[in-house]
């Protein structure tokens, strides 16, 4: 359930929060070496590219390299293709668990995708080995699974008549302690940066945090339920979040969100 293949991505709902989701993508991109994009014959891969927003920015930042977005969701790929005019940016259907590049990669970049894959840490050394010496692997994953936004999913799932149906949801593959990624990659790297940032995301509107997670972590739960149970479950979850993330007098709901970043340079 959590591999992103068997479920449908709602590209429009995901893009509703594009600004908040874009910020870590750009922070990650900021640590890439511009000289890498100029390697003749080498491509930049955007792994789990979604609607291609970041793929297009990668192409702007690295004007000499082909950029290839890979995703398993037809819906996301359709959105990506319909929004992209630059012929240097192309999109391919593929499963990150079995990624094999058609072109030699100079940069492998992935924003908010690998946490959907069980055992992702074991895939990262293999990704690094696909790169030439000096090539960069850049990965960002949310590490917010212990926060109320994610813990409340389980709590709401266990507290209603939907309990048995939702017991089938496999929790999202947890993102591990930063040092685990450091240890897994360091032997293959000349440079390795691992860091975390907690973004204080200012949200507005009704149920803003539940709306935010509806297109990502909550999706596998919602997809197992029919109406009216689906809405009842959503409301139970949203009520838990309203307590955990109160709306402030100025109408803003702050949603702290922890993210893990890895930028590795192949030795
Ligand atoms: C949260 S979105 C991130 C999209 C994009 N990177 C961004 O930052 O806007 C996660 C994406 O990973 C894709 N994905 C999840 N599991 C995947 C897999 N096993 N293979 C390929 N893509 C996958 C989903 O289809 C989705 O488009």
Task: Summarize this structure as a short list of keywords or feature phrases.
single chain; 267 residues; alpha/beta; Rossmann fold; seven-stranded mixed beta sheet; 7 strands; disordered N terminus; binds S-adenosylmethionine
Q: H/E series, N to C?
A: HHEHEHEEHEHHHEHHHE
Task: Tell me what portion of residues adopts beta-strand conformation.
Answer: 15-25%
Report low-confidence residues grouped into runs of 5 or more: 1-6
Q: What summary fits the major beta sheet?
A: 7 strands, mixed
Computed over alpha carbons, the radius of gyration is: 19 Å
Helix segment tally? 11
Q: For the record, give the distance between the C-alpha atoms at the N and C termini, rounded to a whole number.
A: 36 Å
Task: Give the name of the CATH architecture of the domain at 11-145 and 172-202 and 255-266.
Answer: 3-Layer(aba) Sandwich
Present as ligands are:
S-adenosylmethionine
Helix content: 25-40%
Under CATH, the homologous superfamily of the domain at 11-145 and 172-202 and 255-266 reads: Vaccinia Virus protein VP39
Structural class: alpha/beta
Written account of the structure:
By secondary structure, the chain is of the alpha/beta class. The protein has a domain at 11-145 and 172-202 and 255-266: 3-Layer(aba) Sandwich (Rossmann fold). It is globular and about 55 Å long. Helix 4 (74-82) links the parallel strand 2 and strand 3. It has a seven-stranded mixed β-sheet, with helices on both faces. It has helices at residues 11-16, 18-29, 53-61, 74-82, 120-129, 148-158, 163-166, 178-185, 208-214, 219-222, 229-244; strands spanning 43-47, 67-71, 89-93, 105-111, 136-142, 189-203, 253-266. Helix 5 (120-129) runs parallel beside helix 8 and helix 6 packs across helix 11 (229-244). The protein binds S-adenosylmethionine. The site of S-adenosylmethionine has 24 residues, from helix 2 and helix 3.
């Amino acid at each position: 359930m959590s591999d992103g293949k068997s479920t449908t991505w709602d590209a429009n709902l995901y893009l509703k929060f594009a600004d908040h989701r874009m910020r870590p993508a750009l922070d990650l991109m900021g640590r890439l070496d511009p000289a890498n994009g100029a390697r003749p014959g080498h491509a930049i891969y955007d792994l789990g590219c979604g609607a291609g927003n970041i793929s297009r920015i990668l192409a702007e930042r690295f004007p000499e390299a082909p950029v290839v977005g890979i995703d398993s969701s037809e819906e996301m790929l359709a959105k990506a293709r319909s929004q992209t005019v630059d012929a240097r940016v192309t999109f391919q259907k593929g499963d990150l668990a079995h990624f094999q590049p058609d072109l030699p990669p100079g940069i492998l970049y992935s924003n908010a995708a690998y946490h959907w894959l069980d055992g992702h840490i074991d895939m990262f050394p293999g990704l690094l080995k696909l790169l030439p010496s000096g090539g960069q692997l850049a990965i960002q994953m949310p590490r917010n699974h212990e926060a109320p936004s994610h813990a409340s999913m389980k709590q709401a799932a266990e507290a209603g008549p939907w309990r048995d149906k939702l017991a089938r949801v496999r929790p999202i593959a947890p993102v591990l302690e930063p040092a685990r990624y450091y240890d897994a990659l360091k032997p293959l790297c000349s440079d390795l940066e691992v860091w975390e940032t907690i973004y204080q995301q200012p949200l507005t509107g009704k149920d803003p945090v539940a709306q935010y997670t509806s297109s990502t972590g909550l999706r596998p739960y919602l997809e197992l339920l029919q109406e009216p149970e689906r809405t009842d479950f959503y409301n139970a979850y949203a009520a838990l979040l309203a307590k955990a993330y109160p709306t402030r007098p100025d109408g803003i709901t702050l949603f702290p969100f922890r993210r893990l970043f890895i930028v590795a340079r192949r030795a």
